[in-house]
Amino acid sequence: MSNYTAAQIPAELEGTFVEFAWRAADWEAQAPVGEAFDAIAAAAASVQATDTQVGQLLTSVCQRAAAMYADPRTAMDHPCGDWSLWRQRIIASRGSPWQLLADTAMLITSPLDIELGLRSGYWQRARLEEGFDDWRNA
């Protein structure tokens, strides 16, 4: 079992493309397993992203997904603007939609964003064994 800690977005970056990209990764981390879910649409609604921002993120993410998961036997097996289809393909290939979204967010994160206090979301394994209530005592 793992726990997810959402990205920490400083006030100076609220409403920016960087916040939108990280929120998409955060939403994907919370996505219900085995169900259709569109983390990009959820993030767009939560941060009130513009149509331009949504289009830019979809293009970036879908191009990366196509490079990693497209079937080379077909010319265009999934349209670039449909994240839900790519999400299904990534999961079927045992990939991580969250990882692809987080990697894309990291690519657009600048050193200044990090200096301002942006911290990426991350996964941490939970200790389930009885008697190990503190990971430092393992």
Write up what this structure looks like.
The protein is mainly α. It has one domain (15-123). Helix content is 49%, strand content 6%. It has 6 helices and 2 strands. It has helices at residues 17-29, 39-47, 51-69, 83-92, 97-108, 111-115; strands at residues 2-5, 122-125. A two-stranded antiparallel sheet has the order 1-2. Helix 1 crosses helix 2 (39-47), helix 1 (17-29) packs antiparallel against helix 5 and helix 3 (51-69) runs parallel beside helix 4. The longest helix is centred in the middle third of the chain and has 19 residues, at 51-69. The protein is globular and about 45 Å long.
Topology summary:
Layout (H helix, E strand, L loop, with lengths): L1 E4 L11 H13 L9 H9 L3 H19 L13 H10 L4 H12 L2 H5 L6 E4 L13
Antiparallel strand pairs: 1-2
Helix pairs in contact: 1-2, 1-5, 3-4
Keywords summarizing the entry:
disordered C terminus; 2 strands; mainly alpha; globular; 49% helix; two-stranded antiparallel ribbon; 138 residues
Tally of structural domains: 1
Overall strand count: 2
In angstroms, what separates the terminal alpha carbons? 17 Å
Proportion in helices: 40-55%
- Residue ranges: pLDDT <50 for 5 or more in a row? 128-138
**What structural category do the secondary elements indicate?**
mainly alpha
Strand content: 5-15%
Largest sheet: 2 strands, antiparallel
**What's the overall average pLDDT, rounded?**
84
Number of helices: 6
Task: Summarize the helix and strand pattern as letters.
Answer: EHHHHHHE
Spatial ordering of strands, largest sheet: 1-2
